Amino acid sequence: MTASALGVLLIIVSGVIEGVAQVCFKKSALAPQAKLFWVGAGIALFAAQAGMYTGGLQFVEVSTAFPITSVGFVAVAVLSQRFLGEPVTRARWIGIALIVIGVALLAAEA
Amino acid sequence: MSGSSRPSARIPAWLAWRLALAIVLDTAVHVLWKAAAAGLPGVLSIPTLVEAALRQPLFLAVAVLFVWQLVNWLRVLEGSDLSYSQPITSLSLITVLAVSVLFLGESVDARKVLGIAFVFAGVWFISRTAHDSGGACP
Fold first, then answer.
1. How far is CA B58 from the centre of its chain?
2. What pLDDT sits at residue A108?
3. B135 CB contacts (<8 Å, ≥6 apart)?
4. Which of A93, B14, B113, B134 is the most exposed place for a label (fewest CB within 10 A)?
5. Is B73 within 8 Å of chain A by CB?
6. What ipTM was reported for this prediction?
7. In this predicted model, which residue has the larger pLDDT, B110 or B132?
8. Chain B interface test: which of A11, A92, A100, A109 (most B C-beta within 10 Å)
9. Which member of A26, A61, A70 has the closest CB to residue B106?
10. pLDDT tens-digit series, residues B58-91
11. Region B49-65: what's the mean pLDDT?
12. Which residues fall within 8 angstroms of residue A11, CB to CB, at 6 or more apart?
């Protein structure tokens, strides 16, 4: 595996972890009695994400790395629908797909 | 969903302001993070990286902005759908790219400009969808 590919892999995994962390943060707003637990879980996941993202930044440019984390948008949409009961409509999916295509164009050199 | 009002396509002023702040903070965090990471030694040992990061003042600035970003984001989520608000923050992809080009000397070409157009289109689509954002600042 090349250094560039390793950097891209680290940043993709960090994007998925960020998606899970976002669901924890939303859970903290929905369940005030367990707010600290969910915020703590979200922060812990963000810390793990931060380590991976920092490692990845040593191998790729920020203008390439940051767009790749948008894999988290897809994770958030799926998890929001599954675990938060949010209405992820067709229009919202189209928007997410357009963002992911935009991200692919922005990161194509990686 | 926050469950406090009927879903609507309108964005309340408080939510627009907080989303704009989230985008600005996201941009600052990522650009400073890149500048800080550039000063780290090229090794993958976690203890070594943590020790080097603690000596790097830029990481302190990143940490402060992170806390501000977290507080602001929790307020956003208290009054809006996660699957609505989070994709809108992808506009920071564009602001990070702009700052990277202007201040970090990174390059931009026609393909990246097309990518920016797709991101804008995606955010526009999502901003037109009905969402549960309460109405008043939570």
1. 18
2. 67
3. B4, B5, B12
4. B113
5. yes
6. 0.78
7. B110
8. A92
9. A61
10. 888 888 998 999 999 999 999 898 988 988 888 8
11. 79
12. A52, A53, A56, A57, A60, A65, A68, A69
CA of B101: which chain A residue's CA is closest? Answer: A63
Whether A80 and chain B come into contact, CB under 8 Å, resolves to yes
Contact A26 B82 (CB under 8 A): yes
Residue B2 has a pLDDT of: 45
Q: Is some CB atom of chain A closer than 8 A to the CB atom of B111?
A: yes
Nearest C-alpha in A relative to B72: A25
Percent of chain B with pLDDT over 90: 23
Paired strand residues for B8: B131
How many Cβ atoms are within 10 Å of B43's Cβ, its own excluded?
10
